[in-house]
Write a structure and sequence with these properties.
CATH superfamily: Glycoside hydrolase, family 3, N-terminal domain
Number of strands: 10
Number of helices: 14
Structural class: alpha/beta
Strand content: 5-15%
Distance between the termini: 54 Å
Strand order of the largest sheet: 9-8-7-6-3-2-1-10
Largest sheet: 8 strands, parallel
Length: 364
Amino acid sequence: MSPTGLRRAVGQLVFLGFDGYSIPPEMRSLARDFDIGGVVLFKRNVESPEQVAELAFEAERLVPSMPAWVAVDQEGGRVARMRRPFTEWPPMAALGRSGSEDLAARYARAIAREIRSVGVTLDFAPVLDVLTNPANPAIGDRALAAEAGEVARLGAAIIRGLQAEGVAACGKHFPGHGEAGVDSHHDLPVVDLPPDRFEAVEFVPFRAAIAESVAAIMVAHLLVPAFDEHRPTSLSRHVVTTLLREGLAFDNLILTDDLSMKGCASRFTTPESTVHAIAAGHDGALLCEPAYDAQAAALEGLVHAVEDETLSYKQVEASVARHARLKVSYLGGRDRAARPSTLWREVVGCAAHQIIAAEMGRYA
């Protein structure tokens, strides 16, 4: 493997956040040196549907050899990066109270049509955490329900809806964030439950998601002593590879939660956490903080980890192959030279979607 080939391979394993309404020069520079796997959009990147469509067009084409994922957290409720004129959705707890798979599927298809119309190809949804701790500060009304079977049933309907409209879904947050009493954005939650409890409750929705061929699963920043006494779940090979990849037989993308979150970043530097995460078995590390020097250092860290055999190149190749396979499914078959579509004018915030949101609102 040539040095250039290695840099391009490890670049596929990183999703980057950035500032502004267009691709900044720093990200273009990184994309020239590394084939960046994807970008993550936040509220700071969203001004209007037309601007997002142009931004997504630019982002997808950062890497000539393979299109980049354009990803976003668009759940509804308090976690929705795209606000009016996009349809504003009640939190997913409303779907749980409705109990309706049909409503969950219609909601998912509507979200997918809106974000796909502006070029988004991966939605970090649905939340598959079972809300066993009602005081959970991070999850709360983002969860579908407090009963594992309901989360599995409705989560599967959301996955089917998103993916039927050409948007890759990402179930989160494995191995299960519902019992946590601390928000992993601010600190590392300790979830001290036995393995059989995870098998009986927390893993149930993830098994259902895998049965629906969910494109990706996101791993949380948690400390679960029953699985790993020392490392957060997001950096634990036992959790990522032994439990999820092998135990649940999941062969699509495994992604970290944002490595900038304090649950991870308070203990590890960005280069350290990125190398640990990929070595644990992830296919993608999310570096959402727009700190370009740290992002560059993380990418260089992956190169050095392969060179010194801390990280297996065969594992990198397997991850790149997963990205390539799923990108054919969700990003293939389109003219990459064509300008952004104006389909969003007919879709974003349309009357049909407002009716679905209003129906959900009756259960909010």
